[in-house]
## 1
Amino acid sequence: MTAPALSVSHDPDADWSLPAWLYTDPEYFEVECARVLRPSWQIVCHESDLAEPGDYRTLDYLGESVVAIRGVDGVVRAFANVCRHRAMRLVEGPAGCARKIVCPYHAWTYESDGRLTGVPMRRDYPALRLEDNGLAPFDVELWRGFVFVRLEDDGGPSVAAMMAPYDCEIAPYRLEDVRTISPVRTRERAVNWKNVGDNYSDNLHIPVAHDGLTRLFGRSYAIEAQPYVDKMSGRLAERRSDDPWERFYQTHLPRVDHLPEENQRLWLYYKLWPNMAFDIYPDQIDFMQWLPLTPTTCLLREMVFALPDDRREMKLIRYANWRINRTVNAEDTHLIERVQQGMASKTYTAGPIGASEVCLRSFARKIRERLPEARLHHPPAPGWSRRPRAAS
């Protein structure tokens, strides 16, 4: 029997993982930050965290400090947290409220819509035009109550477009109405940012490394990949776990009336391109993003949201959820740190990807589309990123 001819669009690297040097190389890291991370959407907060005019939240990454602020006109905008005079940082900390933003260095004053309206000794600046020196803006998108920003626009899809394949199944969770129940928590990890995302979407390690999730889900864990979002899911098993917190969660999870029957005992995980994830449970929503710091370190940024629910059993269930996932997070941290160490070995280049590893395949494909050098199993000679690129 003759094997079918390969499609002209077949990717010769589709059956291979991204090579190890992409997880350690400083030159590649700089290019990846520029071409992948700077144009990507990043979550800042929930819109309810910016409830009143002047409320702001900050996000620091890739050498930029972003401030998202609600204007007196009710519009949420985002700006560089940098004074246009001498580059002073304007606001400190993760959150605050300011009807006007006043630079702590020389008291230049900006409105909540970014306009520069106050300059001491204004006549001392003959070249100054107030209208040309407002705060530098960044793009903002509001998706189902969450505030996203991006540093640059490369024509990529909106958050709404990325999540469109799952919009209908997310709708019952009323994300617009949730509130923050746990403030931003950050944790530095000694791994390349991609290792966090690879592990998040990896289905094969669940029965091997996560005994708790295996007890909770049985054989129901499933994954699928859309162009810009991965979906993982697991349904709580009827067989009661031997672990006390897992058994408590299985037994006492209260009914959530706004969810369909099939979602009452369903855990959903969505990973958005390239470095964000929502864990959606009947009782709460966890958010995580992994922000690159260096080629071999990243910062995990986490928040927890939920609909208002004062039931005692719901409070206990949310605590049980935290206990269960604290164990899962510890297991994953051990795994990704060991993988990062293995990436430094001279014996490892790239590994084969199974046909079932659809999420890893999807992520690797998008990286290769943006950075053709990612197809090389060994790093090119230093300085490759500064040489003219060959015409395609």
## 2
Amino acid sequence: MTPEELEAARDRLVPDVVADGLDVLFCGINPGLMTAATGHHFARPGNRFWPVLHASGFTPRQLAPAEQGELPGYGLGITNVVARASARADELTDEEYREGGRLLVEKVLLLRPKWLAIAGVTAYRVAFGDKKARIGPQERTIGDTRIWALPNPSGLNAHWTLPRMAEEYGRLRAAVGNG
């Protein structure tokens, strides 16, 4: 994609990949420009979501972003805290995160996934006003839905290696299997 094509995707909305009663609803921070331009979640080359999803046992093979429609068949879905696309998450305001958190609660109450897995603990902290949240399961629930804060799979989150990230996603996978 050209820089112009990516810039033209700014502020586009990307449809959620959801169904009622999922095992896990993964929640990104917000769509990047590549995601908005393609309409496929976690589409930027270098984003580790799809490799980590497979390495942690959620999918039997590594899916490509264009295969996101297969996720509900595995009991999985994708949404975002903030719906609008931007080049970087630091372009978002705290108000957008808080409003996104409010809307996410409504979505979770409607869809009733077993787990809401937010891929970005900082986004979770701001959206839900929980400044002390850490990676892992959270005490807060939304109805019967439990919450797990995961490391952000962006390539910019370099201190989380692929194996370490797969291990953390695998902890969630084990919790899903035990729930």
